[in-house]
Structures are given as C-alpha cells and as structure tokens.
TrEMBL record:
<dbReference type="GO" id="GO:0005634">
    <property type="term" value="C:nucleus"/>
</dbReference>
<dbReference type="GO" id="GO:0003924">
    <property type="term" value="F:GTPase activity"/>
</dbReference>
<keyword id="KW-0342">GTP-binding</keyword>
<dbReference type="Pfam" id="PF00009">
    <property type="entry name" value="GTP_EFTU"/>
</dbReference>
<feature type="region of interest" description="Disordered">
    <location>
        <begin position="534"/>
        <end position="563"/>
    </location>
</feature>
<dbReference type="InterPro" id="IPR000795">
    <property type="entry name" value="T_Tr_GTP-bd_dom"/>
</dbReference>
<dbReference type="GO" id="GO:0005737">
    <property type="term" value="C:cytoplasm"/>
</dbReference>
<dbReference type="Pfam" id="PF21131">
    <property type="entry name" value="eEFSec_4th"/>
</dbReference>
<dbReference type="Pfam" id="PF03144">
    <property type="entry name" value="GTP_EFTU_D2"/>
</dbReference>
<keyword id="KW-0251">Elongation factor</keyword>
<dbReference type="InterPro" id="IPR009000">
    <property type="entry name" value="Transl_B-barrel_sf"/>
</dbReference>
<keyword id="KW-0547">Nucleotide-binding</keyword>
<dbReference type="InterPro" id="IPR005225">
    <property type="entry name" value="Small_GTP-bd"/>
</dbReference>
<dbReference type="GO" id="GO:0001514">
    <property type="term" value="P:selenocysteine incorporation"/>
</dbReference>
<dbReference type="InterPro" id="IPR050055">
    <property type="entry name" value="EF-Tu_GTPase"/>
</dbReference>
<dbReference type="InterPro" id="IPR004161">
    <property type="entry name" value="EFTu-like_2"/>
</dbReference>
<dbReference type="InterPro" id="IPR049393">
    <property type="entry name" value="eEFSec_III"/>
</dbReference>
Length: 584
C-alpha cells in the first residue's frame, strides 16, 4: 500500500510550515493542531524565551478523508486524513534544519506576515520549497493588525505582489489565503477567536493528493528527538524518509556505530506494528543514552556511507549573487548534516561539452538531473569557477558540470541524495540569497586517505600553453629555442614533448642548451626553405647575440623581422601524484 498508514484508516500527509522569523508560523500550527507530537512547539528553552522556533516541531490534526482521495486511497476510502505539520525554523542561520525537514514535505505552507511581505528568509524558504516540494499554499498571517476598513484592500494588494514574486517559480498561481492565527499577538489570551483557520483547513484538504510512498529499499529515518522510558528502552521520534520498519527489525544508528532492535512502534500515541516512508513515528529500541543522539539518522545496518569527499552534479541557484569559485569553501547540506567543504568545479572537455549542450534547459526548480552520466572512465576539464550560460541573456542553459567536495569532517548520507551548497556565513540581514548551488551526490569516497587512493582515478585535467621563440638554426633539423622556460626549470621533465612552430613544422624537445633556460629542438621532417630564409634574415638583422650578449637577444625584433614562435601544448591531470605532462 503506497500511503502512510496510522492504524489502518488514516492517510498521513506532511505539510511544511515555512516562513520568515516571527511571521507567526508556530501559532498557526498551534491553531491548526489538535494532537501535539513529542517534538512539537519548541522543546528549546532558548526558543520559549524568545518566542521563536528553533527545532523542527511536529504536530498533527486529523480530518475526514476529502472526496478527491476517496477513490484512490484504496481500503482507506472511509478513513481519515492526518495532516502532520512540520514547523520549520524561520531563522536564517537555521536554514540547514529546514533543508533537513524539507525532504519529506508533500505540501509547503509559506507563512507571510501581511504587514511586512516577502523578506530575505521568505525568499530562501521559497527556494528550498522549489528544490524539494511540488505544491504550495501561501498564508497571509496577522490580518488582525490591519485596520478593519483597509483590511480587504491591503490583503488584495499583498496577494497581487505575491503572485508577481511567484510567477517565475514552479508555484505560480498557487492559492493565497488570509488568516489571523493568534489575534492580539503571542501575549493575548487564548480566548481571542482566530480568523480564517477553518477556511485554511478546507483549502489544505483541497490541495492534498496521494503522495508517492515506497516501503521498498533501505530504511532511512530522520530522528528529531530522543528520550528514555525507564524499564522499556530509548524512544526515538522522527520521520521515515525512505523504506519501512517493523517491530523486531534491527536498525543502525551510524553516529554511535551501534545496532539496536526495535521493541515497539507508535504513531501519534497509538501502537502500530510497523511504519513506512512519509510516516511520523516513535520507535522504542533497546536502551542507550538519549543524550548521544538528539538529532540524526537511523537506517538499515550498513546502508549509509560515511564520506570524506564526494563528486556531485551542480547547478547554480539563479538568485545567488556572485561567482562560484574552485577552492572556495561552502556549507554543504547533505543528508541530514551541514558541513564545510572545499569545492573543485569541473566539466566536459571543450569538444564534448559543445556536442552535448542541448537547447532545452530544465527549470531551475528541479533538482539536478544531468544527461551525461558521471563516470570515472571519462576525462574532465578543470574549471576555475562554475561556468554559467554563455548567452547575452541568461536564457542560455548552463553547461553540464560537476564538483568535487572535500569535507572538513566526514558526513554520513545515503547515495544519490540532494546536496545544497550555501554561504551561510554571509550576513543574515543583507537582503541576499545564501543558497548557492544544488545537485545530487553521484560518487562518494569512503577512504580517509582518498587523496592518495581515489583521486588519482578522477581524471580532471588542465591544459597548458607555452610560447617561446626560435633563437637560431643549427642545421636543417636542429634549432635552439628561448623564452619557453625559466632559468631554474628542470628541462629533463620536458624532453620528448612535441612542439610546433608558427611556420607549421613540428618537432621534439631534445634537451637543454646552456644554463639560461634555452633548449634544443629536433625537427624530424626538416625545416622548409621559407622558414630557413625567414630565420636567416632575422638573425642577420639582430646582429650577433652571443651568450654574453643575452640582453640583446631578449629585445623583441622589429615588426618586419617576423620571429618564428614555438608553441608547446600539453595537459596535466590535477590529481596525478607524478604531475606528468601528457600530449594527445
């Protein structure tokens, strides 16, 4: 059965409540809710004092199954619909928590303060919604703060503005509804009547659909709260992101490197025998110290990987201002962790890239899906930064590209999971998006010494072009060249490499000549008569430049004397320990 199942008759539907700090999300969740689950409404004392949500609170309420689901919900057609409200923090610094919660959200409820409108965090929440969630409802909260005679006009104006903001996102034309979740503000007595909440519940019912739930595959559960019950064991509450679990299953807690047996399972305080993807559960396992795991993941033993580095597909997030540079550090949110990583961008070699560029660009909102699969068998081209579309207007799609992430500490995550790179150290109050790029994890490196064992197999290369001049001709097959190498260069490394002359001949570097970085070239086919004539005329004009008269040689000959240039082209693999120079 492909739906969340609480008891047998209830369909579980996860609604993420996102919005700017102080937009009234928690009071809205409280107004909507009847059953508060354990994590609900801020366990955090710091948050109680400030009246701001710091952890992913969960709570739920149950309604009759709406008509549109009765036909499709199988045996549940006379059952009920449980909305689980995932109240995500509004603090910009806690964006990582939001990303953690957004992976299982079926519908997003974006709460906007009707007086303040869209703020920085509102925009960031929108982006996370675009990356993780198919549908949205916008709730204009705090309408009680508007004077009654101007209320309707102000609501209409704000609704128009929001539709304008959303028109280029996947949520264009999403419903907007106005409410007052806590008239009079947080301090007001609870007797104050809420406004618009029953209408909001009806709207939510109309927006529900049968979420795709799959009990197959490895279990991955995001744990948001952990506590002991004396004589019974340790209870972990959280949401099943993938797979399913049942009583007597063994699960792994990767952070503690231990396996535990499931003794009992509850959903919203009712005992059940098992649960699956999308369900919100409390799982009691054999005793361990709950302080060791306040948040984290639980999984099928051996199914998660602890990675020191990874290759990911990358797409820049359009609203991020500034370039994405190789060697820069970003906050990487992967699985349920956020960790700093050094980033190296790379793409297809120039020829392959032009062949594979397509005319259609996938919409910004969809998580990366690249048409060229990543494989270690292919060669890739090193980039100093992320490359954006070449067009004058930004309608040109960005070329396909990838990044190597080298984590500052190892991260535990499932394969192919969503990856988001951000600059969370930027000023919260600056009105700028801090989400920089998104993609999918394609290949992980689990060996601590991956730089020696794995990276040499990642064939990312840089091309090098050097240019020098012909100093003089020794005979028809031998030249002396200059200005290609510094005096201190070890010329032995370059012996045997091919060079071409600006006149078309090709040759091979035979070795150094003297101490000043000059070198000898062998021209296998011999010099053309025209080249010899050109070189003899330039050397006459320049006069006798012996090794003592070095500076005279360094002067550029006059324009009419046409010196002959020497070009050396080779590539070097960035992670090759020998730093070999390779010519195709």
């Amino acid at each position: 059965m492909s739906v969340g199942h609480v008891g047998t008759k209830t369909l579980n539907f996860n609604v993420g409540v996102l919005g700017h700090v102080d937009s009234g999300k928690t009071s809205l969740a409280r107004a909507l809710s009847s059953t508060a689950s354990t994590a609900a409404f801020d366990k955090n004392p710091q948050s109680r004092e400030r009246g701001i949500t710091l952890d992913l609170g969960f709570s739920s309420f149950t309604v009759d199954l709406p008509d549109q689901l009765r036909g499709s919900a199988g045996p549940q057609r006379d059952g009920s619909l449980q909305f689980t409200l995932v109240d995500c923090p509004g603090h910009a610094s806690l964006i990582r928590t939001i990303i953690g919660g957004a992976q299982i959200i079926d519908l997003m409820m974006l709460v906007v303060d009707v007086v303040k409108g869209v703020q920085t965090q509102t925009a960031e929440c929108l982006l996370i919604g675009e990356l993780t969630c198919p549908r949205m409802v916008v709730v204009l909260n705090k309408i009680d703060l508007l004077p009654p005679n101007k209320r309707q006009g102000a609501i209409e104006k704000m609704t128009k503005r929001l539709h304008k903001t959303l028109e280029n996102t996947r949520f264009k034309e999403c419903p907007v509804i106005a409410v007052a979740a806590k008239p009079g503000g947080p301090e007001a007595p609870d007797t104050e009547e809420t406004q618009g909440v029953p209408e909001l519940i009806e709207l939510l019912k109309r927006q529900t659909y049968l979420p795709q739930r799959d009990p197959a595959g490895d279990l991955l559960m995001a744990v948001d709260h952990c506590f002991s019950i004396r004589g019974q064991g340790t209870v972990m509450t959280g949401t099943i992101l993938q797979g399913s679990l049942a009583i007597n299953d063994t699960v792994e807690i990767p952070a503690l490197k231990v396996n535990k047996k499931i003794k009992s399972v509850q959903m919203f305080r009712k005992p059940v025998s098992g649960a699956m993807q999308g369900d919100r559960v409390g799982v009691c396992v054999t005793q361990f110290d709950p302080k060791l795991l306040e948040r984290g993941v639980v999984c099928t033993p051996g199914s998660l990987h602890t990675l020191y580095a990874a290759v990911v597909s990358v797409r820049k997030i359009g609203y991020f201002k500034g370039s994405l540079a190789t060697r820069a550090k970003f906050h990487i949110t992967v699985g349920h962790e956020t960790v700093m990583a050094k980033v190296t961008f790379f793409g297809l070699p120039p020829v392959a890239a032009s062949e594979s560029s397509s005319d259609t660009k996938p919409p910004m909102s969809l998580p990366c899906s690249l048409e060229t699969p990543f494989t270690l068998d292919r060669e890739y081209f090193y980039q100093d930064e992320y490359v954006t579309g070449q067009g004058e207007t930004s309608s040109e799609p960005d070329p396909e590209q990838w990044a190597l992430l080298e984590f500052e500490r190892p991260v535990t995550c499932p394969s192919l999971c969503l990856v988001i790179g951000s600059k969370l150290d930027r000023d919260i109050h600056a009105n700028a998006c801090r989400l920089a790029f998104q993609g999918r994890l394609l290949q992980g490196f689990e060996d601590k010494s991956y730089a020696e064992t794995a990276l040499p197999h990642l064939r990312i290369y840089k091309t090098k072009h050097k240019e020098g001049q012909v100093e003089r001709v020794c005979d028809d097959y031998t030249l002396i060249g200059r200005n290609l190498f510094k005096k201190e260069t070890n010329l032995q490394l370059f012996v045997g490499l091919k060079v071409t002359l600006s006149t078309g001949e090709s040759g091979v570097i035979e070795g150094g000549f003297g101490q000043s970085g000059k070198f000898k070239i062998r021209i296998q086919e011999g010099l053309c008569p025209e080249t010899k004539q050109l070189l003899s005329s330039t050397s006459k004009k320049k006069g006798k430049g012996g090794s003592k008269g070095e500076p005279a040689n360094e002067e550029e000959p006059k324009a009419d004397s046409q010196p002959v240039s020497i070009y050396l082209r080779f590539k070097r693999y960035v992670f090759d320990p020998q730093k070999k120079m390779v010519q195709s």
